[in-house]
Amino acid sequence: MVRLTCILRRKAGLTPSEFHEHWRTVHGPLIAASQSGRHVLRYEQHPRPLSDYSGDDDPGFDGVTVQWFENMDAYRAHMAEPDFSALWLDIESFLDTGQLHFIVTEEPHVVMGDPEPFPLA
User: Fold this and answer.
1) What are the average pLDDT values for consecutive 10-residue runs of the chain, which has 121 residues?
2) What is the pLDDT of residues 14-35, one digit of tens each?
C-alpha cells in the first residue's frame, strides 16, 4: 500500500469557503467518477476548519488530501489514464499548483495509537 499525501493551498482570488466548496462538491466527485479514480482505493479530504482562518487572505494551507493506492504501479497508472488531464485542469482551477506539496509514502510505522492499519471500508 502506498499513499499520496498532498498539502493544498487555494488559488489566489478564491475565498476559503469557495475553495472548500469546490474541493468537496466538484473535485472529489470528479475523481470518484474518473478512469483515473479507479486506481484509487481510498480518497480522503482533510479540510482546514473555516474557524481557523484569520480572513480571506490568510496565507496558510487549506487542507490535506490522501489517496491510497495498492502499489506504485497503481499510482503511476492513475496518472497515465487519458482522463487525468481533465483532473489536472480542475486542479488548476482551484489550487495554487506552484504551492502544491506532495509525497508518496509506504505503510506507516505506528509509534502511538492503534497498531492495526486503518480499514479501507
Assistant:
1) 97 96 97 96 97 88 97 97 96 96 91 70 56
2) 999 999 999 999 999 999 999 9
Query: Can you give the residue ranges of every domain in the chain?
Result: 2-54+61-105
Residue 5 pairs with which residues in a beta bridge?
66, 103
Look at phi and psi of residue 113 and say left if phi exceeds 0, alpha if psi is from -120 to 50, else beta.
left
**DSSP code per residue over 35-48:** TGGGG-SEEEEEEP
CA distance 53 to 99: 18
* All cell numbers assigned to 82: 487519458
In Å, the largest CA–CA distance within the chain is 42
CATH number for the segment(s) 2-54+61-105: 3.30.70.100
Per-residue pLDDT at 50? 94
Q: pTM value? A: 0.86
Residue 42 CA to residue 120 CA, distance in Å, equals 7
* Whole-angstrom distance, CA of residue 110 vs CA of residue 117: 9
